[in-house]
Amino acid sequence: MQKLTPHHKNNQQSAQVAVDWVINDHFLNVTFLFEGTSLKNEISGTPFNWGLWEQDVLEVFVREKGHSSYLEIQIAPSEQLFALIVEKPREKFYFARTDELSFSVSTHQAEISIPLSLIPEYTNGDLEGNFFAVIDQNFYAMTINTEGQPDFHRPDLFRSLV
Hints:
By secondary structure, this protein is an all-beta fold. The protein has a single domain (2-152), classed as Sandwich (Immunoglobulin-like). 0% of the residues lie in helices and 45% in strands. The chain is built from no helices and 13 strands. It has strands at 2-3, 5-6, 16-23, 27-35, 57-64, 70-75, 81-88, 92-95, 102-105, 109-115, 127-135, 138-141, 159-160. Strands 2, 5, 6, 7, 8, 11, 12 and 13 form an eight-stranded antiparallel beta sheet that branches. Strands 1-3-4-10-9 form a five-stranded antiparallel beta sheet, with no helix packed on it. The chain is globular and about 40 Å long. The chain starts with a strand and ends with a strand.
């Protein structure tokens, strides 16, 4: 398990969030574990779950190494999903399919299985990405930015997932 790092602006530093992942022939399987807190089960009432990141949510950003576009997946304890293909952070993106994703979420653990075929331009190469959690308006990442505000859309901070 890889411990996620809290952002320095967090209000609460007591939560512990960790992630583990396994890549096989067809899937990226991700498990999140959290201690010292629990996810709040809130419902997003927006189309396509836009704004899901404004509540408790777990996020996976992944792409094939050498490519610029990446897949963004968010899961909430309300069992809501949000998925985008991001070509240029905050500028060019479109909704991704979610019908092939399988996941489960409880108050202290979440698992998601992502078909590799959903990753843009995937050609069986090595993957890189980042994992995130937003819990009670506190931000965590495998590789967190150091600027004043948390910023998950930083492909320059993606790490190898091999």
